[in-house]
Amino acid sequence: MLRKIAVTDLVVGMYVVDTGLSWLEHPYLYTEEGELRSQVAVAGIAASGYTEAFIDTERGAYANTLSGEPGGEVSLAALLARGPVTPVAPVVPLAEELETAKGVYKDCLSTAQAMLRDVAAGGEVDIEAPQALVNEVIASAVRNPDALIALGKLRRHDAYTFTHGVNVAVLAVAFGASLGIEAEGLRELGLAGLFHDLGKTGVPDAILNKPGRLTPGEFTQVKAHPRLGRELLETRGLPEAVLRGVAEHHEKWGGQGYPRGLAGETVHAWGRIIGVVDIFDALTSRRAYKEGMLPTRALAVLYSMRERDFPPGLVERFIKFMGPYPVGSFVRLGSGEYAFVRGSNPARPLSPELLVAFDAAMHPAPRRILAAERDGKGPLAIAEALDPAAYGLDPLDYLGLPAG
């Protein structure tokens, strides 16, 4: 498949194609056909003033890095260069999948609790139960990704230590699927997400739950948890990609992360993906000492971190995947009415499926399903996102209901 990308997104292993376009009409298009075999070659293209190139995603060493196949390390730049995967309509309606997803989420939560308690008590990590559950998470995400995401972000839990790993696994799998990652890669992502904070069992609870600023000594202990997590998993026969996802999810694009200060493409793709969803879940989750942010605000925080903490394009793709108003968001419309976001619309993120539930005076209204207006204007446009808890509402009471 041919794809036009910016020269700044070229990486070693990509195969550039000469499309035969006129140089006079496209003077900044790089057209020397062949595989890019060194970083020097990549840098030379940009230095020559070219701004775009066509690549063949099925040729060159890069082609085998897209699916997480054994023997080929996944390149995040290659995944992003592929462009958005065409969204597939949910196989199962949200209301139906929610019922199944509740059981999957509950099982994941129980497994996470047992795993962390066993490890904290000095036991070995059980990897069999998590592997089986990650397969169930993938199956649910294929049927309707909104269901598990909604459950993870809308259920009000106090046990952040246990729910966080489950939420990160769910988000990583669903986001990975939207990037076109194949089944084996999704299994690795799910396991890395579930295990990503395992090393925190070696950090005192008083530090993990401290509401104020950590001392330098306390922060040093926290920064050791990715390394500790890898060490706990190294003898359990897991793929190297899982271990790297656990060990590298706090590394930053610019090299200011921890524990090793890795930068750029030296960080595994799974570490980058888990890093993004880890921050999103942490920002939007309720903790003992703080309320969670609204998703729209959390996405804005992530956007401010692009190209500093995360590679070019990754945060933008995550925002497009989640949508400005994730499923379960409580919103006020231009008409003054209030609605819940009932379904995502990856092709048109500003036009999710809505379930109108209240009139402008917050009186219950006949429920009707509609799509927000695409141009962001008019009575059906979303005017603002609100916190449903402030109104005493649980979105899950509405998401599974048909229009009245």
Task: Compute the number of strand runs.
Answer: 10
CATH superfamily of the largest domain: Hypothetical protein af1432
Unreliably modeled segments: 67-71
Query: What portion of residues is helical?
Result: 40-55%
Order of helices and strands: EEEEHEHHHHHHHHHHHHHEEEEEH
Architecture per CATH nomenclature, i.e. the level-2 architecture of the largest domain? Orthogonal Bundle
Structural class: alpha+beta
Distance between the termini: 46 Å
CATH class of the largest domain: Mainly Alpha
Average pLDDT confidence is 87
Domain HD-GYP: 139-334
Protein name: DUF3391 domain-containing protein
Domain HD: 161-283
Kindly describe this structure.
With 404 residues, this protein is an alpha+beta fold. The protein has helices at residues 39-47, 76-81, 94-120, 128-143, 145-154, 160-178, 183-195, 205-208, 216-223, 225-233, 240-247, 269-284, 295-304, 314-322, 396-399, and strands at 2-6, 15-17, 29-30, 34-35, 52-56, 330-333, 338-343, 353-358, 364-371, 382-386. The strands form two sheets. Strands 1, 2, 3, 4 and 5 form a five-stranded mixed beta sheet that branches. Helix 5 (145-154) packs antiparallel against helix 6 (160-178). The longest helix is centred in the N-terminal third of the chain and has 27 residues, at 94-120.
